[in-house]
Amino acid sequence: MLAQVMRARVAIRAAREKTMDKKTQSQSEGDLTEALFKEGEIYKPSKDVLEKANLKNYDETVKYAKENPEKFWEEAAEKLEWFKKWNKVFDPSNKPFYKWFIGGKCNIIQNALDKHLKTKGNKTAIIWENERGVSRKLTYSELSKEVNKLANALKALGISRGDRIAIYLPNIPEIAISMLASAKIGAVHSVVYAGYSAGALAERINDAEAKILITADVGYRRGKIIKLKDVVDEAVRKCPVLEKVIVVKRSNEEINIGEKDIFYDKIVEKESDECETEIMDAEDPLFILYTSGTTAKPKGVVHVHGGYMVGVARTINWVFDLKEDDIYWCTANPGWITGHSYIVYGPLMAGVTTLMYEGVPDWPKPDKIWQVVEKYKVSVFYTAPTLIRAMMKYGDEWPKRHSLSSLRLLGSVGEPINPEAWKWYYKIIGESRCPIMDTWWQTETGMIMITPLPVVPLKAGSATFPFPGIEADVVDKNGKTVPLGKGGFLVIKNQWPAMLRNVFKNPKRYRETYWEKIPGYYATGDLAAKDKDGYFWIQGRTDDVLNISGHRIGSAEIESALVTHEAVVEAGVIGKPDPIKGETAKGFVILKEGYKESQELVQAIKLQVRKTLGPIAVISEISFVDKLPKTRSGKIMRRVLRAKELGLPVGDVSGLAD
Ligand code: WTA
Questions:
Q1: 9 pocket-lining for ligand 1 (C-beta < 6 Å)
Q2: pTM of the predicted structure, to 2 decimals
Q3: Any atom of ligand 1 within 6 Å of the Cβ of 547
Q4: What number of other Cβ atoms are within 10 A of residue 130's Cβ?
């Protein structure tokens, strides 16, 4: 079965290479789609799902949203609380710097916390557990108080509207509390995934010019203690603008206490648990989140209060069909956009109980994840294909040891889900009872964009249709729609409220990356095809961004990490299909004079990449080469490396220098 997954991946990659190669384009597009669409069995929603769905009249809604997009989003906004209503829903006058809910005054906290205090203060907002069996529950009222105390402490440290706060924390309640406290006082959070290295953390702190960093002494993972504070100490030395480091102390591990360090408990203990929510402009920034692009420098994607809260609230309610008594578990990490929108803000705005788990799904035993589902009676479960494939590998007996009867709806995100994994997830985890929402979206889109809703008939491996109000299409490089069944570039033809507003301090990059690649449209960077029924099949990235276990990382970022090793002159990095991770990174390395190829050197270089970028950027293979294929202007042609590595046609090499 894994071989099958592997073959499908290679086929997808092959088709993708061909799609990019103009010469072979027309002959190749058909091959790909045929391979994918053979899986075209339809899974219809059950009577029960149809009856209970939050959105029942799907077709009319899609039609209505298409004809009245502004009214459609305005009605979504009206379901939320605002301090002051907007004067205008959408302003496209300064393209591509679009604005939403102009003149509106709000704060996402008003909807994520404040409004619930009247009606569900005693309801559990967050359930947290870690792999050591330690757990904590916070009601909406308790959570709000914790947020207020930290918000007051931040103000006492001189933080005010618009200031940036970096957050580098494990998956513990304090990560959510820190994000919410930042939003509450109108500051801008920038969460950095706690698997990033000191260098990557410092780069993000410096780009955001963060004044404060919130971190912890340690994190726990796979039975090990991760000494976060050591990483932070190294990063902080490179961050002159940073004024204070707030440390959540969780263990008795010895840590270095520097002059910027203060303890979380100490600063919150004396603060009041009441705090006014800052009245923000709808277009005021809520957070910056760094993501990988085609260059080595990550992009600071900027999201704002108003549109983001509207888009996230509407999508979570319809896609996951949330009900008052749902126990909702998204296994992502708050350090990624999925965690921002669908662990923290989305579920809290919906007023359900959101579960956070610190640890890995298969430790100490491969059924850990299913044990957690059973223990907390999780009803809505949202995860990534890489995790599903890894669990599938352990065999059906592990989930079968547990009652999964509480589950009623499943979700998938982060990369294409191959039909085999989809079917396993559907049958074994969902017990053929739970519809699967395969949700396509990005850090930049802020909210789910292409997805089924529970009433939509499903096809294993297809994200089905755009969310109502979203005009997605598959086009050629000139923006012309390609015929059904053909591969092409995935674009969004209109605007949506939760869209990114800018790349932090880099409007040029914002404009060029997203709005100028394909005339008039938002370029997603993904390839896709639509089948004869109009279902979307996402095939992966067109650019040199890898997707390793659902984590985005640029080839260029790994290349620049490789050349930090003293033995390496130059390097090219490509993604290779992998049956579990989706993709892994392979590096082609030119050694400096005097260095000799050896296994030790391979290990040392791999370690250097890990040290430079963090454990998420593992490089699985290294080959030593004398030369790299380059264009005349000196750019590495990764396409050629990939084709040779995978034994695929190399395609058009007229641009090759040598
Ligand atoms: C990929 C994660 C196929 C895609 C929310 C996109 C997917 C990138 C899916 C964004 C899906 C995400 N099917 N591919 N359901 N969801 N992707 O910014 O290539 O971390 O461009 O956001 O992940 O990754 P990001």
A1: no
A2: 0.91
A3: yes
A4: 19
